[in-house]
Each structure stands twice: as structure tokens, then as C-alpha cells.
Amino acid sequence: MAEDRSPKPIHCKAAVCRAAGEPLTIEEIVVDPPKAYEIRIRVICTSLCHTDITFWKAKVAPVFPRILGHEAYGVVESVGEHVEGFAAGDTVVPTFLGQCERCASCASEHSNVCDAVPFVIGPGMRRDGTTRFRDARGSPLHDLLAVSSFSEYTVVDVNQVVKVDPAVPPKLACLLSCGAGTGVGAAWRSAKVEPGSTVAIFGLGSVGLAVVQGAKMCGASKIIGVDLNPDKEEVGKSIEKKDIVFHSVTEQSSAPCIISRRSFGVTDFVNPSQLDKRSVVEVIVEMTGGGVDYSFECIGVPSVMTDAFRCTKMGKGKTIVLGLGRDSDEVCLPSLELLFGRCVMGSLFGGLKPKTHIPVLAKKCMDKELQLDALVTHELGLQDINKAFDLLLQGKSLRCILWMDKDK
């Protein structure tokens, strides 16, 4: 009788979210084998994103118990039937957005939302709506965006897996799978920022700072960062002479975290709370002689989206909305100003097609065209994931990398 070499269920650790807003629990779970067109990945590292916070707070699709996480780097452990182009040992990043490379949307230059494996917010694998996770009692655990990277192993649809060069540092590849890819892509692919243009970025968190890098990569001449946190002025600007202290805590102590010498590329900084009686729109329009060519909203607040729109240039200004707000939020835009050639567009994953563009951005990181290292302010083990949540909620971190094998 031939030996059965088909993949078997794997027992591993995962951070499980059992109730909205409650601390995650580290549990032993079972990860089922991949089905047809699926890949099981051994996660090397993952990162905490504000989108994870949104689902944890149950602002969107409140389904529990659930394994969160969608930004990660790992190694292929096994593949299901009909999977081509991947083998055990390949270094990969899973993505929340798929790319079949065959449908009309994948072939179009104007869309990055695959028709074959459509993007859905609700839980369940994209092809059959079921889960590959069970807890110790055998009860199903729901996934997040069909990725669920807060687990030592996960199963992802083949259309949501991107092969990356093993020479790319794991934490950089991890960042490109969501936040950094979204920011850089928004400038590069969605806005198509032109050399010599002017840019305003509302919100200098990790996505906003990645937009800064994308705008700089595209040759923007003036990059205005807008943030209420005064520390972000020096974090965002070109850092040449000295290290900058970003007020956050490390895993060992409550001392400030030193961000090493990096060049994000912000040329000007505006703190809306320090403008006396002037509005941020008035200040930016004056700074640029009529408004910026491109504006990016990276916060998810309707009033900020309006400000981002109003600070763009008449006749050509383009506003890109990246911030994730609530489904019930409504944005108020002055209709008369829309008539003067301005436009507003949303941007999912920065307009990137994952399989096409993530390898391109990874090479730019290797060639130092993109410098995203400083986005990582903390590195912890999975067992300290609740500390990572606290740091992000308190505004004390940009990106925290969670290593699966740290301090085991």
C-alpha cells in the first residue's frame, strides 16, 4: 500500500480573539490541511495593523471567536490540489487581496480587485466560505480577510499568496503585504504622482509615512505632512544629522524608542492644533500657491477627508482616501468645488496588484530606493501580542513585528 503523504492537520499556537475589545489569548489550535487551490504557510513573522484594531473592536463584521492578522511573511509548508508555481520551502507573503492574473479585472490597468476570488470583509475562505481553524475543543475559529496571520500556521488561497525573493528581509516583506504596500502604492499606482508635484499627507502613521516614501520615489518636490502629534515632524522629515527620539516604549523598558537614521522625505510639516485661528486648508493653500496636486487621507475621519479635498489645486487636484472609517460615516464635499476639476478616489491596497507589484517594491527596498526599515519601531514575540495592541492604541508605535519563534 502506498504511503499517504497528503498534508495532515497541524497543532500550533495562535492568538485568539474571543470577544470584542478583550485581550487576545494564546491557545493551541488545529490548522486543517489546505484544500484545492490553497496553500498552508508556516508564518515567520506578522505585524499589527490598524485594520486589525478595527475588527478587534468589532466596528466591522463582529464575528468571534476569530484569529486576526493579515500582514505577514512565511514559508510554504504544503499545497493543496491544483496549486501551480508554489512548493514547500518557498518564501511568501499572504495578502488580503487576490490576483488570479486571468480575469478581466486582473488584466485591466484600472482595477486591482480580482473577479475570480473577490475581496470580501466577512469571514470564510474565498472559495467555499469555511474555516481551516479549530480550537482545542474542536470548535471552529473564524478567519480575518482569509489570511489570519496571528497563528504559527495559516491556510490561504493561492491567489492571495505572493512569492518573494528569500534575500528580502522578512520584516520588510511583511510590511509590503499591507500597510507599506498600501502607502507606497497609493502614491505610485493610485495617484500616479508626477515628478516636481506637490503632495499633502494627512496622518503620519505607518501608512502615511509609506505614502511619503512613495511620493519621494515618484519625484514629488514638496511633501507636506499633517499630523496632531508634534513628534511626527522629525520622524517624517529627512533625518541626516542625528537620530530622532520617537516617544514610545520598548519591550524592555519605558524609555523612549530611538528611530535610527532614515529618510522618509517630508519637506514641510503642519500641526492643525498649532495654527491659531487659521484652518489647515488655508495654510496649505498658501504654502503651495493655490493648493497641492495630490492629497492623501490616511486616518479615516470624514472631516479630515473634506480638508484633504479642499487643500487640493483647482483644475487638477486629486485626493486619495486610504483611511478606514466606519461604514456609517458620510463624507461632506462642497459640490461647487467638485465642478472645478478636482477628484476624489478611494484606494484599496494602494492600487497594487499583489503578485505583480509586491516583488517590484521588494526589489526597490533591496536597492534602497525605498527605505521602510524605520517603520518598525518594536519587535516582540507572539506571546506579547497584547503589548503590541497597547502600543498601537496609545500611539506609541508605528509597526510592531511579531516573531513566531521569539523567546520560545
UniProtKB/TrEMBL annotation:
SUPFAM superfamilies attached to this UniProt entry: GroES-like, NAD(P)-binding Rossmann-fold domains
Catalytic activity of the protein: a secondary alcohol + NAD(+) = a ketone + NADH + H(+); a primary alcohol + NAD(+) = an aldehyde + NADH + H(+)
Pfam families to which the protein is assigned, alphabetical: ADH_N, ADH_zinc_N
A GO cellular component entry from the record: cytoplasm
Cofactors named for this entry: Zn(2+)
Residues annotated as domain Alcohol dehydrogenase-like C-terminal: 207-351
Keywords assigned by UniProt, alphabetized: Metal-binding, NAD, Oxidoreductase, Zinc
Location of the Alcohol dehydrogenase-like N-terminal domain: 37-165
Protein name: Alcohol dehydrogenase-like 2
Organism listed in the record: Zea mays (Maize)
